[in-house]
Recover the amino acids of this structure.
């Protein structure tokens, strides 16, 4: 089935590695023109070259600090100048450090809000006017299972990512009339560097090895394995496609069934 994404322009933030990179590659495979950004310029360059070569895709790659609104504005302007529009925007940023409440400093809280909430605000402010002109757009935020089920040692993520859900609902309500769909994807335990960081923190606290901690994550998942970044990317691409044309304001968990609620 045609996804309707061929020749669409997709921005994917924090796309030099992990889920962001897998998402950029998945859009390229659908025939999209892809704009990638990350703070790590060298890793970003390597990712962009690989995607160009593998999918014969048009790829714009620029180092961007998503906590800087001026840098986000410039990047969106570069994307429009290069490709003529913005159709899809996937907001993403590295998760805040694994800490308990008393271990988290006020600076940790400010950094988490800047990276994991305000970055989504900055991108939305810049891309929505372009989407309104075309009366078609997709904004997809990338958060975590913590939006539904708090995870021990991730108090920063538990609190800040919930604000993104409120933003998603608000944008979906306000801009649905303009043909703009806004949704959130919450990965569960996924094989990324972020999960290794959490495993390291729990290893230090529990005396278990990091591998034992990672194995424990898998045990908590009904599918008894960690997720692959490509599996999260597939859901993001589906939400951007015409196949999800009546889905907006939703949080979709891609967690192998780890969420225990109804």
């Amino acid at each position: 089935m045609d996804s309707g994404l061929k020749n669409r322009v997709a921005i994917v933030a924090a796309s030099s590695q992990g889920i962001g990179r897998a998402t950029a590659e998945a859009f390229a495979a659908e025939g999209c023109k892809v704009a990638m950004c990350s703070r790590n310029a060298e890793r970003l360059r390597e990712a962009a070259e690989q995607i160009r070569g593998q999918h014969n895709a048009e790829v714009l790659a620029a180092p961007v600090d998503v906590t800087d609104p001026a840098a986000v504005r410039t990047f969106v302007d570069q994307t429009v100048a290069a490709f003529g529009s913005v159709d899809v925007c996937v907001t993403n940023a590295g998760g805040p450090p694994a800490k308990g409440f008393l271990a988290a400093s006020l600076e940790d809280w400010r950094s988490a809000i800047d990276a994991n909430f305000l970055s989504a605000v900055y991108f939305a402010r810049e891309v929505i006017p372009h989407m309104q002109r075309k009366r078609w757009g997709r904004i997809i935020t990338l958060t975590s299972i913590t939006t539904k089920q708090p995870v021990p040692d991730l108090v920063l993520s538990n609190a800040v990512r919930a604000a993104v859900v409120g933003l998603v609902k608000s944008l979906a309500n306000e801009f649905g009339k303009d043909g703009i769909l806004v949704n959130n994807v919450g990965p569960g335990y996924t094989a990324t560097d972020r999960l290794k960081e959490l495993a390291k923190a729990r290893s230090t606290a529990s005396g278990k090895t990091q591998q034992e901690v990672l194995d424990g994550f898998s045990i908590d998942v009904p599918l008894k394995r960690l997720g692959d970044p490509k599996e999260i990317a597939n859901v993001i691409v589906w939400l951007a496609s015409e196949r999800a044309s009546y889905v907006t304001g939703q949080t979709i968990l891609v967690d192998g069934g780890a969420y225990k609620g109804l």
Summary: The chain is about 50% helix and 15% strand. Residues 106-134 form the longest helix (29 residues). The mean pLDDT is 95. The helical segments are 18-29, 41-55, 69-83, 106-134, 155-175, 193-206, 210-219, 229-240.
